[in-house]
Each structure stands twice: as structure tokens, then as C-alpha cells.
Amino acid sequence: MRNRISVLLAALAALSVLAAAGCGATAEKGAGTAAGEGPVTGLRLMVPNTPGGGYDTTARTAAKVMEDAKIASGVQVFNLPGAGGTVGLQRMINEKGNGKLAMQMGLGVVGASYTSKSQATLSQTTPLAKLIEEAGAIVVSKDSPYRTIGDLVAAWKKDPKKVTVGGGSSPGGPDHLLPMRLAKVVGIDPRQVNYVSYDGGGELLPAILGDKVGFGASGYSEFLDQVTAGQLRVLAVTSTEPVPVLKDIPTLKASGIDLVFTNWRGVVAPPGIGDADRRMWIDALTRMHDSQQWKTELTKRGWTDSFVTGDRFAAYLAEQDKSVASILAELGLA
Amino acid sequence: MDNLGHLLDGFVNVLSPGNLLMALLGVVAGTAVGVLPGIGPAMTVALLLPVTYGMDPTQAFILFAGIYYGGMYGGSTTSILLNTPGESSSVITSIEGNKMAKAGRAAQALATAAIGSFVAGTIATLLLVFVTPLVVTFAVGLGAPEYFAIMLLAFVAVSVTLGSSRVRGFASLLLGLVIGLIGIDGVTGRQRLTLGIPQLADGIDVVVVAVGIFAVGEALWVAAHMRRKAMPVIPVGRPWLGAEDWRRSWRPWLRGTALGFPFGALPGSGAEIPTFLSYAVEKRLARRPEEFGHGAIEGVAGPEAANNASAAGTLVPMLAIGLPTTATAAVMLAAFESYGIQPGPLLLERQPALVWTLIASLFIGNLLLLVLNLPLAPAWARLLRVPRPYLYAGILFFASMGAYAVNSQPLDLILLLLLGLLGFAMRRFGLPVLPLIVGVILGPRAELQGRRSLQLSGGDLSGLVGGPLSIAIYAVLVILLAWPLIKRFVPGRAL
Questions:
Q1: Given an 8 Å threshold on Cβ–Cβ distance, is A117 in contact with B346?
Q2: Which CATH number fits domain A44-131+267-330: 3.40.190.150, 3.50.4.10, 3.60.21.10, 3.40.30.10?
Q3: pTM over 0.95
Q4: Which of A267, B12, B142, B216 could lock onto B146 through a cystine, CB 3.0 to 4.6 A?
Q5: Which residues, given as ranges, of chain B have pLDDT below 50?
Q6: Among B289, B432, B351, B319, which residue's Cα sits nearest to residue B68?
């Protein structure tokens, strides 16, 4: 009985969307797809950042895999950049009930929703799935006096202002949150941390290579080649388990620091979408995740799979939201 | 000369019909997006990425490199003809370029830009082959204090653009600095002058400001004056460069190249600063400086060479250490990754064929651009024969489209109109518009580097003076500023 209702709802939702879009596809097709037969049509994926950035690459790759694996056809990816993703987030909230739209997001959007004092919050959205994650890394140049994370923390504790931290994101972003969380765990007041913000990994890298900052905090993949070439030293990674490509590098936990920090990317839908639409999205994303093409992309791009859907992702998002809010509040940014 | 051998291999690889076609497609597309304000090469490459997934990586990169070089070139066309810079790196071209166009020398301005871009692109690509390791070591050694010094130098250099009335010039510059303040402060994450509008959090895009002040302001100004008297149709004049033009252009081309290449290689300096410096240098060195402001060909030749040379310079850190210094380079790096190619210090060892073919394709792309654009220059110039009302309607159309294309935000159109009114008012009260744009471009960067220097030194003012380079730059600054005084006390030579 419930299933019939959901099919009906899906048909209704599909009809309304189609009517609104004035598009020529038939209602039966829309209804059938919700039950998981044939490719879904008319899906739109919003990227709240500029073309070419991390969210953009993830969204376009996901859309392409959905096409190739015949899960969905004609998935439209579009960019609505602004205020670290908050402009896009506001749009999601305004699109209340639109079951064909979803937004690519991640930890950066969580932080930005606080630093930009946005009216729209992620708690209003419908969480669909977390796709990938990336461990952070604490990096120094090869000439740095710090050989281990222990050395670094000891020096940092002694004079937090003097040991500068470079990161590739603006305040509130992942590279800013990582050193702040780390400081808190090792007993340094986050307000004492001298964080220098660089415009992405491209600007951060020379600052670390040229010993302009005490240490760098960012996603590990930003530095992989420089580490292989021996120009940079990774002191610790921030995941629960060591990263396979950096298997000799200890995790923070293994070094006696109780912190796990990953930068993740996921997908959320507008508030108030129908149950059927929510299930259709989760189903499509799950099938995308299970496809061979997605696995190939993961290896190719060095992404770590961390697929979680629906309520479990909602719980994760709520927990992340809370932790980000508390650290930013402490810094006077939220 | 091992590199030369590799480069020849690269030429062999690139000279296949398929690759040549890609290079041609790239430069045509690049020129087109360069002409349209708001759509930059970075966005084009990003949007083309999914299309190229099926392609051989070499072909894809040949295409991207063509777009990049083409975009740097195309931006000058609208700057010269319509006083509407297509890219922020061709803002300075419009000062002399548009004056030349209005004097019936549009074809010459376009030609000197085309040949200058070719000369600069070719020399800079050669430099890319031979001096990459050197430049990279140099670029990595520079920190925030050096960049801050460079920004200050750029500020002083552009003071020559302030116009005849210093007070009006500084007023305009300050307006620009204020517009540059709008948005989230990168150091503290706090919002400034955003009036609670989330779309303003990232600041106002330079393209929107430039197009609003230049194009919309100009269109309104012309519209306001057209009723009183019919405007004469702009003469088109001779189509080719004369001997005098060649004589006056070749030195600025070379000087522009020398300025543009190293700046391209520096992370976070961009293609605009060398164009400012080049303009200032040409104005100082010109035999007839009084022509500046009324269509001096040197003022087009130098900056145009500088922006193309900086495009090649950008590829130095990207290929050598996987470091993108512009948005386009960043997108190209993302493209490398999507092919499973890890860019970085080991790229040249792992993928020599790809890298050398890419470099060879830059030479080809450059040549194609010249072949394509030189004959087109007189044809473009004829565009000015279009009667003013239609011409300016067209400009307004492209201006609005470009401003909207930057972020797809309706708010940008409102901003465009407001800035257009500001541009109109500035013309009405005789304020030069260029210092404003300079303030918008340089202000935020100088602020960022200055504050970053102070952050790194823990608030100690000595942090603003870094290595020997920053000291050298400050010394040059002092000499420049004190020059009128020194001149008074140096007897004998009347300068």
C-alpha cells in the first residue's frame, strides 16, 4: 500500500515538475524511474562554487557517471557561486519542495553558512548522501626543524603566535578548521592560533616550500607529488587509519593526539521534498556509487570513498554542524 | 641542449592534422571568449572539461593551451575598439588603444597588439623551455613582504595614469579602493560593506566594475551628448602598420615581454600588474610622452606583449612544480588530474611527451593566432563605421551579457547599471576612470599581502621588509618618488 502511494506521489511530483518545466517527457516515464527502472530524467545538480573547483569536479564527475551507467539521463550541472556556497544554499532553501534539484556541498559550506551569517542553514535542507572524504595532513618543508608532530606541537604550545599556520581556505573553511581543532585538542587557545589564509593549494604550496609559514594544514592530495619528490614532509595525517599512498605517515591518533578530521563532500536536496523524491535521489546516488565507473573515478582522482546515505548522513551532518559552530563561536566568527 | 631535442620531438607530435585542428579550435574559441567580457578562459576550459574526457589528453591540452593564449589576445580587441576590456589584463590597453581607434588608427592598434602578442608569446615560450628551473626557485623564494613591495611599486607606477589633475586622480583611485573593500575580509572572515546582501560577500567582480565604468559609462555619456550635434563617423584609415609604427613598437614589445614573463610565474601576482608596469615604463621612456593619453602606439604594444608573456610565464610553475598561478592554470591542473596525471615536480619525468607536445603546441597556437588575427584587424576596425546609436546599443548588449555571465547573478546587472551611472558622473566631472579600476584590482591584493606579512611577523612592522628583493624594490620606489627633488639638485642635464 505504501509503495503504491509513493509511486503515486512520485508521479504527481514528476508531473508537476514536468508541467512547470513545460517539457515533453511523459508522466509514465517519470513515475517508472522513481521505482528504479530506466534512467531518471530532469535532474539538476547545483554547484555553489565556480567551475573547476573541488565541488564542481565532484558534481560533474557524479553526473557523468550517472549518465554513463544509465542511471539518469540529461543531468544538468550548473554553478551558482558566492559567499563560500551560501548563495547556493539560500537558493536551495528557496526551492523548497523541488524534488529534482540537489546541491553539491561539503565541509566548506558548513563553515561558510556560519561565517557569512547566512539566514539559510544546512539543517533546513534534506541530506541525501555523503560521497567522498579526504584526510587532512600536517605538512612542513624538508628544511623545517620539526621532525615529528610531537616536535611541532611542543614548539607550538610554547609560542602559539610565533608558529604560523598556513591553510588554503579562508576563515571557516576546512584548512582553517583543522588547525583550530588541533590547537584545542592539544591545549592551545584557538584564538591564539596565527592562521594565515592562502588562496587555495596553489598559493599555499610555495609558502610552505619557501618556509614562509611554520607549518601547513590542508588535504593530503594537495601535496602528494612534492612529498614523493622529497620537498615536503608530512608529519601526520588526520584520518582514523593511515592513508594508503602515505602508509608510513602516522595518524594523529597514533601520535597520541585525540583528533580525527576529514574534509568531506556530499549532496543535499531542498527542504520539504516528497518521500519518493528523496528515495529516488538516494537510490540514484547509491546505484552511482555501486557502479564500476565511479570506482574507476575514485582511483583516478585519489578520492576516498565514504558513502553514507539518508538518516545516517543527516546525523553526521548535524554532528559536523555542531562541532563547526562551536569552534567558530569560540573564535567569534559565528 | 637536451631540451631542444625534446622540443623538436614535441613539434613532430603536434604536427598531426588532428592536433593542429585542436590548436585551431582552441585559439578561435579563446579569441571569442576573450572578446566577450565576463567569459574568461578559466570558465571556458572548465566548461569544456567534460567534453574532453573522451579525448586523448595531449589533444585536450593542446585545445586548452589554445584557449588560454587566444583569450589573452582576444581581450585586447574590444578594449581597443569599444573601450570595453574583455579581461582585466587588457584594461590598460583601452587607454591608448581606444584613443587610437577614435583617431582612425584602430587597425594599427589591433595590429601592434597582434604582433606584440605573437612576439611576446614566442619569446616567453622559448624562455619557458630554457629557464623554467631557475624561475621556479626564484618564485618559491618570494613571500608576502616581497609581494607587498611589488604591489606598492605597481601603485606608484600607475600614478602616471592619474591624469593631469592629481586631486581628481586620487579621488578616483580612492573610489576604486572603496569598491575593492566590499566583500568578506580574507584574513578575519568578517564582512565589509556588504549591506547584508550575500551576493556581495565575494566582492564585486573586476569585470563588472570595468565594464560598468568603461562601457556603460561611455555609452551613457555618448547618448547624453548625441542630441546636440550629430557625431561624425569614426574614420577607419589605412589598414596596415607603417614604418613609423614598427619603429615605435618593437622596443615596447620586448620590454613588455621582459616584464610579463616573470610576473606570470609569480603565484598571486596575475597578468594585470605587468601591464600596469609596462604602461608606466613606456610612458617614461617614450620620445614623445605628450602623445600618451591621445593614442600612443607604445601604450598598446607594451601592455599587450606583457599580458601574453605572462600567460606563458604562468605555465612555468604549473609544469615545473604543479603550482597554478592563475584561475585558468588551476582549471588546467584539475584537467591533468582527471586524466590520472599527477601534476607536480615529477611531471616532466613521468610524462615528457605530453609536456613537450604541449609546449610545442603553444608555438603553433601563437602562430595561428597571428595568422588569424592580423588579416582580421582591418575588418574589425570597420566595425567602428557602424552608426553610433547602433554601435553603443551593441556595446550595452555585450556589456550586460558579460556582466551576467560572470556569476549568473541578476544583482550584477543592477551593479553594472549603478557603476555605469558612476562612470557617467565621473566623465561629467572630469574624473579619470582608470585609477578607479586600478584601485579595484590592486587594492585588495596589496591589502592581503601587507596584512599577511604582518601576520607572519606577529605584528612587527619590520615584517614588511623581507629579503633582498623587497629592499631593492623599496629603493627603486624611493628614487622614483624623490626623482623631482634629485633632478633639481643635479645640475647640467635638463631632463
A1: no
A2: 3.40.190.150
A3: no
A4: B142
A5: 1, 494-495
A6: B319
